[in-house]
Request: fold
Amino acid sequence: MNEQTKLRTIGANLPRKDAQEKVTGAAIFTDDISLPGMLQAKVLRSPHAHARVLRVDASKAQALPGVVAVATRDDFDGMSPFYGYLIKDQAVLATDRVRYIGDMVAAVAAENDATAYQALDLIEVEYEPLPSLPEIATALADDAPELFDGDKPFGVANPYGTGASGYVYPRKNVCYQFDYETGNADAFARCDHVFEDTFTFSRLQHMHLEPFVSVARWTIDELEIWSASQSPFVVRKELARVFAHPENKIRIHVPYIGGGYGAKNACKTEPLAALLARKARRPVRLRFTAEECFLTNTQHASIHRLKTGVMQDGQLIARKSEIFLNSGAYADASPLVAEKAGYRINGSYRWQHIDTKCYCVLTTTAPAGAFRGFGGTQAAWASESQIDMIAHRLGIDPYDIRMKNLLNLNEPYVPAESGIDSDLREGLSLVADRLGYRNRRRRRGRGMGLSVVVKDGGGANKPAHAFVKATTTGGVIVGSGTTEIGQGSTTALTSIAAEVLNCERDRVSLTPVDTHASPYDQGTFASSGVAIMGKAIEIAANKVKREVLAFAAEDLDCDPGDLVLQDWTIRRGNEVHPLAPMIMKHFGGPGFEFVALGYYKLPADHDAPLETKIPYWENGWGGAEVEVDEETGQIRVLQLIISSDFGRAINEGACRGQDEGGAMMGLGQALFETMVYDGDTLLTPSPLHYRVPLASDLPDRFQSILQEQGRGPGPFGTKGGGESGILTVASAIANAVEDAVGVRITDLPITPEKVLAALDRQKADGEA
Amino acid sequence: MNEQTKLRTIGANLPRKDAQEKVTGAAIFTDDISLPGMLQAKVLRSPHAHARVLRVDASKAQALPGVVAVATRDDFDGMSPFYGYLIKDQAVLATDRVRYIGDMVAAVAAENDATAYQALDLIEVEYEPLPSLPEIATALADDAPELFDGDKPFGVANPYGTGASGYVYPRKNVCYQFDYETGNADAFARCDHVFEDTFTFSRLQHMHLEPFVSVARWTIDELEIWSASQSPFVVRKELARVFAHPENKIRIHVPYIGGGYGAKNACKTEPLAALLARKARRPVRLRFTAEECFLTNTQHASIHRLKTGVMQDGQLIARKSEIFLNSGAYADASPLVAEKAGYRINGSYRWQHIDTKCYCVLTTTAPAGAFRGFGGTQAAWASESQIDMIAHRLGIDPYDIRMKNLLNLNEPYVPAESGIDSDLREGLSLVADRLGYRNRRRRRGRGMGLSVVVKDGGGANKPAHAFVKATTTGGVIVGSGTTEIGQGSTTALTSIAAEVLNCERDRVSLTPVDTHASPYDQGTFASSGVAIMGKAIEIAANKVKREVLAFAAEDLDCDPGDLVLQDWTIRRGNEVHPLAPMIMKHFGGPGFEFVALGYYKLPADHDAPLETKIPYWENGWGGAEVEVDEETGQIRVLQLIISSDFGRAINEGACRGQDEGGAMMGLGQALFETMVYDGDTLLTPSPLHYRVPLASDLPDRFQSILQEQGRGPGPFGTKGGGESGILTVASAIANAVEDAVGVRITDLPITPEKVLAALDRQKADGEA
Reply:
């Protein structure tokens, strides 16, 4: 499958299309949008983790000169103020209760920031504190109060549906539960060994450079929003419901986005900005500070209880998992994350029995939502740690236990699911070789660890629409709902059109997303942009190409099959016919544009466990070598080798950037990052307190191996990627630490303190 | 043909879609666009009608604090600075010569208007005056200097082509000539009478409320422009050529336009705004004052020499026409106007021989370009005046001579042309009846006049692309390149989609034009928006409807033919199935949009005289009754009755608005409006000096008769309209004046002075 056609743009590793703009600062982000008369908005947030809101009096704030509008729960006229990805439980501003420190209670739109801040101080709020439930355990305790009993959330149990009916939680303070079972539970009885281990994953921040920000303007009854949103059509749908306003009168523009990693997947600032703008009758910019971003969305902390049955020879047989996700105060994307965290917990191995339960637990902390890897990060951490632990217990090399149990090419992930589309053993072998795993010299204090992950990619049920236009002189313009969030979609999508239309990539431009003009897209998520939307663009570009060739064939009185399109000329044998004069002759005036829509959607398959089959698998492999200082517990990463199968890399630099960027996020998760709470209070409330990897933390040897196994359904065999890079790192490092010093850390991040404590225990056990 | 299906939105005469926005001032026009860091631009203009530019020194201006960029002819690096509709003869800023008072020489972009104006004073320009040629006669004189001999223009002879080859004028200072001949010249010899008359049409202003304005921004090498342009794709093409820049890197947005009447049909402010923004490296707004608009574009003054052969019984036989258009200093749209002024000179009558020559004469005055009616205004004035004069000379009633000679329904306008698609006699009869023409009591000082006009509509060769999208909840969004210039396209185009999709018009929105996102359109001209673009929208909406019905039929397991779409529900017999849940069930997540492209273009027909057949005819009828005060020469319009055949009125109010608005412009042309020159100097240089009709000038009885003869090729039989209203008025009034007092004015406007002078001559002739 590695034989690939020589292409012109694909594989040429051109510079990023947006590089110059971004490096020079010329690129336009939402925060650069400035409308005449625009006001600045600031938010009053709850100082209580859980409290009843007895009184909100904004009259003094409203009277402050320079304040144009103050919004509170009293401004919900004609609205359904609750929103949420699936479960509508989060109010635009607090109604009867606040549920975490930072919950939004009121907001001010004023002529400038200073006035807005001043006005916040004048808003009087009276609270009646209620018991807080900061942890999964406290929220699940028998005597825990219900977080939602007054203003009942609504939504639907089926995350793929929608509705406005009252929604019933599966358990108290559990807003969603995912169950999956296949095979026979008797399988455990046949196992030689059953191992039970628990892993915890820490609460993390997305740390997107650009904060949550939007600008809203009402023109009579048309709402226009500029937003840093990964999923503008989702936001439009929510706003339509929240404001009881027709979708055709809501228009959302998305300039460049400064990173999102899942956090910008649904409404954040938009409903409140729209409410303030409606009240102020002027445009409003609502931009959160970095501290507010910490209070707005997080990655789920989680607890994974894995019970895994194996044979003596290392054959994996059965796994029962109980996963608890800390959803924070509101459901947000928790139900979807739970589905994926549960579905991905068993990794890319062959099982005879799987029994998974994943619970979304509401707590009085900041809401958790989508995060790169979407539950898979947590799953991979737990599963790939336990695989190593099992190998050690059985005296099998962790490499060998993986090789033995990995799914074969084309073998279904689970029954009725699509087959694995990478040679998983080839990938693991590549990484192990680069790492020098198999011929390493064992020495106390140094160790290597491996990890193999699989993530269902592409947003299985996702329809993709795109257009391609070609102007009289051969300028190509591509439009789709895929947002450029830094992942390189502009680079990739223009390259696909350039390849099909056989022109320089410089002759192809992308239209920024605008829900009024861009063809529909469900959102930029699930690594779907290049493979799924790219496919729609490939289809549209091919239609344009066919139309152009048919047009030229008519002009030249020949068969389209005899013609080749190249650089907006038509080649017939040795003849070269420029297209522009041909078009002008036919259409006159200012000429013409060839235009076509492309539509791509995999057929739904309701037999598949997640209602449709997965279009492709993001398979990733990672290996780490560490040196552990047994005096300090300090871990030095000597080598970090990661690899992903992109099917075909549309742009090598962009693919490596995604993979290596993901791996650096993974390194942060493994070693440093954690949102530390003291009860309900966040002790690391900003980037100043929250430790991310620095350039000096780079492993001594940090390499990505780009695989192009060629089996993706996307253009030219691409699969899309960008999420598998993050998945392998934490488990590979934990596995390497055990390999180095024999202690197993099951609780992220792997800090020197934890390593030292484990070494102390090891020593004590040894002495005992 | 008057039997018409009962429709829901079409014919319901709903309020204008943009009414509330515009009445409240909320509507966004180009001048409302304000970008961060935006500079204001001002232009230094020539004080000479014709001069060599010896020296331009902008150094002092450039040094003024607050000035960011000064542009002169020295800034044309990498550019082809000459632009023009077809003939590329107008430089972004003067190169070697200036050719009229007001020609642009230099421009400043500064932090504010005051600084920019101050800087203009610091620019030193040295001129060497050359002989001026203000009139058609002086420009055609044997000893006249050539206006273009240094920097030769380029372009092509065929106005429907394009190219960059050197362009050769047909005669000295004649930039274009249109010739058309059909039948045999011997026809004149068979005529009982041959009448030769000359008519002149005065130089007029468009008087669009919104001035020429654009905002330009370069982001690295992407040029983005907001412009009040009727034809953004034309502007894009010109800018691409002028800046040698790929079309995919030029993006033009068009907000609401505050009127254009043809003046905003091609580049005006855009190339200069782009040049300044490129040099300043900041966004630039270039907005002309009302005075500058007077110096930028005008309607062609013209001279018409008509030689018409007739039989004693009033049968029209042959006409030879020589038409001279005063094109001003640059060609602009003159070639196209010449084609139409020539093609339309013979009106809607049956001829055995036609011989037309129309010349575009360059003079040292402001350029003339497209104007509502596009040459037809001048043609109708001359032709419909002469028809009356001939009737009087033959002693035939002007009504009868028209009835005798009007083309029949479906009779080709000229050989090989499409047939006339209105019953012309029915229309004339309607107007005459409403006027009380046939049973009027004759009395000195009071008179009635009639006029029948025809204008080929629709932009014959024009391709139209549009898209229609329907959201999950039934919001409909329509996109096309048709700009809303006040003509009501938003109202009409959304109504067409609403009708097809059987929903409230409020559920349909239009996307403002953006060359990156809107489907291609050659421009908003030739009354083509509703009929031609409307057709593309109708096609797209029908595709969406078919897709929706097919989707629902699959869900309901039945035949699409059994289903009816109504208000985003599916009706099957008495069952009502809402679509949104059906869509959510199938697509999940945020749902789906149905989207389709519509494409409409009449087939080209190279046998037709103008290279393709006319898609429809804008037929108009007018009648006036006047009272002439023989003491003062003052004309009081007692009645003005106008009528047009819209085929089918998509929105009655909008159609009447177009027709009546046009008629008021015609009233201005007839009685008041004229740009008065003293040599090269304009004596009426602003709206303060230039007399347009006031509310008090409204005729005592002013009525429009809306005909819907149902034969248009557009949606529901519509033809588009808005230009015929202006065409009949001047001739109807001149005809009424002759009917009232026996004097014939052949020179517009029909001022009291001219009437008095004619009455004096009449008296002198009577006494002689």
Summary: The mean pLDDT of chain B is 94. Chain B touches chain A through 73 residues (CB under 8 Å).
